[in-house]
Amino acid sequence: MTLWAMAIAAAAQAQTTVALTGLKQDSSLPVEVESDTLSVDQGTGEAVFTGNVKVVQGDMTITSERARVEYTPGGNEVHKVFFYENVLFTSPTDAAEGDEAVYTLATGEVVMTGNVLLTQGTTTIAGPRLVYNLDAGTGVMEGRVQTVFVPGSGTP
């Protein structure tokens, strides 16, 4: 086995750090939400959006079948948004899809789980868990990682 093949095999079994500049986003921008239905529970401080959910923040769009919004204590601000089923994060240049995702607004961190596929131009990276920071534009694909890249494309 060549040194190059061994390096790829070792990286595939651990974690892969990726630059997500296309998904970089100012997490303080307003968040717009659309869905078929909305149910609010004042007792738990949660709102659930169901059916064709679309969330837009700046250049980033997130779609899923269902999203649950968790507010901070006191209900003044959104703390986290949980996305379920066919989750797709897109920007003008990058896309990430998975089964579920959690977006923590205060930190700008998104954790995607379940059959995660990240596409950056002609490069794809797949794994069970992607943790990325929208403000920094950096992320880590964790678990058994697989990647396909095109030599000479300028992307990792």
From TrEMBL:
Q: Which UniProt keywords apply?
A: Periplasm, Signal, Transport
* Location of the Organic solvent tolerance-like N-terminal domain: 32-137
Which stretches are annotated as coiled coil? none
Q: Which InterPro entries match?
A: LPS_export_LptA, LptA, OstA-like_N
PANTHER family reported in the protein's UniProt record: LIPOPOLYSACCHARIDE EXPORT SYSTEM PROTEIN LPTA
List the protein's name.
Lipopolysaccharide transport periplasmic protein LptA
Gene name for this UniProt entry? lptA
